Amino acid sequence: MRSNIHNAKQSVAELRATLLTPSFEGLESQVPALEAAVRELEALKSAPGSGTRALSRSEMQSFAVDLLGVARLIEHGMLFQQGWARILAASACNYQPNGEPASAPPAATVSVQG
Amino acid sequence: MGNILTSLLNSTGALQVYDRVFNVIQNNITNANTPGYAKQDQALVSMAFNPSEQMWGGLQAGPTISARNEYIEQDVRTQQQQLGDAQQRASDLGQVQPLFDPTSTNGIAGSINSFFNSFSQLAVNPNDQVARQSVIESANQVAQSFQTTSIGLGQVSHNAENQTRNAVTTINQLTAQITSLNQQYRSNSSANQDAGLDAQMHAALESLSSIANFSVIKTSDGATNVYLGGQTPLVIGETQFTLTSDFSSPQTVIRDSQMNDVTSQINSGSLGALIQEKNTTLPGYLAQLNTLAQNFADQVNGQLSQGVDKNGSAPLTNLFSYNQPSDAAFSISVSDISPDQIAAATAAAPGGNGNAIAVSQLANAPAVNGFTFTQAYGDLSAQIGRDVSSAQQDQTQSQDLVTQAQQQRQTQSGVSLDEEAAKMLQFQQAYQAVGKLVGVLNELTQTVINMIPQ
Question: For residues B299 and B263, is the Cβ–Cβ distance under 8 A?
Fold first, then answer.
């Protein structure tokens, strides 16, 4: 049981690191490990008291804080993407974010990035 | 011949264009670590090719395109505001926690225990002068511990005042800087293309965001208008509107340039946290401390007033006194009485220990909202501990959110819309996959919290 909960902690820590520098490849790669972590934690619910045997009080508290932190990072990332999607959708329809029509893009423009 | 000349002219033009491109790249490299700087791209525009009209094609330099996106900048600023708030709370509440150490023998809990123990000792030998003197000394210790804690809270409150003053000064300095930048935008039509000005403007806005919540509206002439709490103007074009802090009443008040009270509009950033602490959090702790001091003094005085002193007389003076309930912790003191005047006996049995026993039993009696004195103090200490812990957690999580927002800024800025639309879909799918687990994670957090041994 201790290894299960430690695996779950490890998965949550890795997801946190991924969410700090988000990339879709990184996020997708975390899903299987996170689903496994969820299964492991759900198993703890059906074995009352096992969590307290597996981890000390401070470890459990720190784990709960990590879970809350990861949930906040996911929520912020999702909100950001939703807003970004609205801006891009408006832009793709040739409108600016403030609702004003955008000026027509110049024809045949090449952009070199440095 | 014409073709060779044209080719030469085109080559010269292209070299000039690429010279500008390299300048832009050089600028990007030089300013990679400049606060507020956003990567610039040099757009290249093809020229018309129609030899019959002497149009020989080629390239010319288009506008310089900034990779900055205001939506992303706003997200970073919002997270900076939350971080500023959490950092300030963690720092200030960190000063409060040591004042309420429940394990300290010199603290309130320790001195209250010593006080009741001194009455237990007096009950063993009610006419012993040393035991009577010990009661007065331990009473003084209780009064002193309440005073020390109250003064400590006052000091934290005073520090918050000074920090508020500094925060308001910094806000005014930053808005002066933004006003000056606006003047440069308005006086120079090419300023919109100036990456340096843009960097200075955004660095100033980002610094401001850690202090207070505000909204930004960019005008068509490139100027930036800033509104505190989305309402009170701080900068409109070339005009600055300064803030002032007013400490003439117990509550901190922030006033706008018209001297209107705009305190309620500030709810984030370090200034938001300072106002919350000074006006709500610290007075809340102090009120509970005053209630405890008042109840302690009243109940001990009440019990002693029912007894008689060493000479069999009813006490003429209360052991404890304070000015008023609202400053009981600060003003509590021990009256100038002699050891003989301690009312250790009951009126029914002068020379006995009945009243000393009754006073010592107050230690275990419900005294404040159903709690004993030490339980009530422990409850207050625990509340402060929870507040500190919550502020520290918020600080860690807000730091993560700032890091995430800054990374998003780095990832998303300056990418073409086509590229971005495809990437956005992938991101959304990835977040949806992870997002499905948020509800489960929240539920599991509760599970983990429930597992924590009490």
Answer: no
Query: In Å, how far from its chain's centre is CA B209?
Result: 13
**Confidence (pTM):** 0.80
Q: Which residue of A30, A39, A41 to mutate against B (max B Cβ within 10 Å)? A: A41
Residue carrying structure tokens 């730091």: B399
Residue B443's DSSP bridge partners are none
Residue (of B391, B156, B371, B161) closest to B285 by Cα position: B156
Which of A19, A38, A111 lies at the smallest CB-CB distance from B437? A38
pLDDT of residue B132: 96
Residue with tokens 């509009």: B265
Of B266, B256, B273, B243, the C-alpha closest to B92 is B273
Contact assignment for B447 to A88 by CB distance below 8 Å: no
pLDDT in tens, A78-101: 888 888 777 777 766 666 655 666
**Residue B259: what pLDDT?**
96
Specify the higher pLDDT residue, A91 or B271.
B271
Contact B430 A27 (CB under 8 A): yes
Cα A63 to chain center, whole Å?
Answer: 17
As a whole number of angstroms, the distance between CA B156 and CA B173 comes to 25
Binning pLDDT at 50, 70 and 90, where does residue A105 land?
A: low
Structure tokens at B214: 């505000």
Please, is B441 exposed, middle or buried when counting C-beta atoms within 10 Å of its C-beta (0-12, 13-18, 19+)? buried
Give the H/E segment covering residue A112: strand A109-113
How far is Cα B385 from Cα B96, in angstroms, rounded to an integer?
9
**A93 CB within 8 Å of a chain B CB:** no
For chains A and B, what is the number of CB pairs under 8 angstroms? 177
Residues of chain A with C-beta less than 8 angstroms from the C-beta of B409:
none
Chain A CB contacts of B451 under 8 Å are: 44, 49, 51-52, 60
Residue B83's contacts (CB-CB under 8 Å, 6 or more residues apart) are B210, B395, B398, B399, B401, B402
Using alpha carbons, select from B268, B281, B259 the residue that is nearest to residue B384: B281
Q: What pLDDT, in 10s, does the model give residues B135-174?
A: 999 999 999 999 999 999 999 999 999 999 999 999 999 9
pLDDT score of B21: 65
Structure tokens at A45: 């619910």
